Amino acid sequence: MASTSPEAAAAVADPPSVAWASAFADDAPRIDVPVPGPKSLEMYERCKAREFGYFQWVDMAPVGFVSGAGVTLDDCDGNRFIDITHGHMGASLGHANPEVITAVEGQIRRVMHLRNNPNDVRAELMEKLAEITPGDLNRFAFYSSGTEAAEGAMRVARAITGGHEFISFYGDYHGRTTGAMSTAWGNIMSGPRLGGFHTFPNAWCHRCEFGLEPETCGLHCVDYLERAIQSNSHGALAGIIAEPITNGSGARVFPPGYLRGLRDIADRTGALLIFDEHATGLGRTGAMWAGDHEGVVPDVIFFGKTLGNGYPITVVACREEYHEKLYTDGQSSTHGGQPVACAAALASVDIILRDNLTAHCASTGAACLAFMNGIVERHPAVDVAQGRGMQLAFEFVDPVTGEPSPDVATAVFKACVARGVWPSVVHTTIRVSPMMVTSERIALKIMELVEEAIADVERNL
Hints:
- The chain has helices at residues 6-13, 16-23, 38-48, 56-60, 86-89, 98-108, 120-132, 146-161, 178-181, 220-232, 258-269, 323-326, 339-354, 357-378, 406-418, 440-459, and strands spanning 65-69, 72-75, 80-83, 139-143, 165-169, 197-200, 237-242, 272-276, 300-303, 314-318, 382-388, 391-396, 421-422, 424-426, 429-431.
- The protein is an alpha/beta fold.
- It folds into two domains: 6-96 and 356-459, Aspartate Aminotransferase, domain 1 (Alpha-Beta Complex), CATH 3.90.1150; 111-354, Aspartate Aminotransferase, domain 2 (3-Layer(aba) Sandwich), CATH 3.40.640.10.
- The strands form three sheets. A seven-stranded mixed beta sheet has the order 4-10-9-8-7-5-6, with helices on both faces. The protein has a four-stranded mixed beta sheet with strand order 1-2-3-13.
- Strand 7 (237-242), helix 11 (258-269) and strand 8 (272-276) form a beta-alpha-beta unit.
- The N and C termini lie far apart (53 Å).
């Protein structure tokens, strides 16, 4: 009997969605025209002439994409990229996923839009979500953006507690409305932070805000947080909002006991513990929810991104016991949970469960992180590799001074794009999170290309 190659064995073992999506990357990346090509630059100028605002990695690398298939994207100059940002982790199940397309097309032919009216696909989606959300978080409200969901979660906290104050953490990001921005960083357009919003250090041990060592600190950041709440709160605490593994600041994983510490503080203060699971939820980190890694059930979660595989739908899920108090709260949104979005979401959840993508993310992510840690050993410009499952990132430093360096991160980002790998960069961090339907073989191929980009940048520093 002929032996089976490791590549063939891996292909046989891959779930259907992984095998489909990753097949498009067999001949990718393919860069035939230097990036950005002339047609991309023309498209960029057309868009720039009519829109305002700055989007960091678009201005750094103005590539005009015209189509996508599985884990790949094609630009208007004929280049093919492997996509490891997938619309900021919105299209985690692959571009042009045929099962999502079929679900959306079928629903469009029935009814496209309703606002909160009962319908079969809405009911089926909520029933399916209730099977997988943590604890008794089985009451839902639908929205069409992450920011809307963040605001919806805060409304739940205000209604249940009667308070108006919120605690959030350095490096987290929850949206761009005034309330959501008040939980993170602001700028001249967002204006001053709203009263009652307080932001504190979290437990990112790699660069501790208190200069302590994780082996001996005793989770000082948790003790500090509780004292800071006592000093800053006016007795009207509504919620503690956290990313259980960060996204905007680059896949920071917190030490054991930290999330449990937040749970305990919420219980002692009467605040609701709210987890932002937009980037981490639905299996990406190797558990259905990032809080599951620590066995911590919050009072509210809000999530989306992967849920519609790019079709706009987000969710706030809260405890069953809150139902009566929230009945008159008016949680609704014109396009939130409309039938087509629910159809896309239901198809996405079915794929995740059928193909056990949670386990796939755990195993493939572990292989990626092991390779990434090797990159850290080999390259002085890489300070840390971090993440869990397929939520992964590097942070970069000046190799001479050891100081965090946005310039090095930007240079690596551009070098990745030039090679046909499409990541995302935020300040000193590059997120290298493969789609959930990326095979281990393709994921490690991506990491090899990223290492080539890093080596190229280091040679030119």
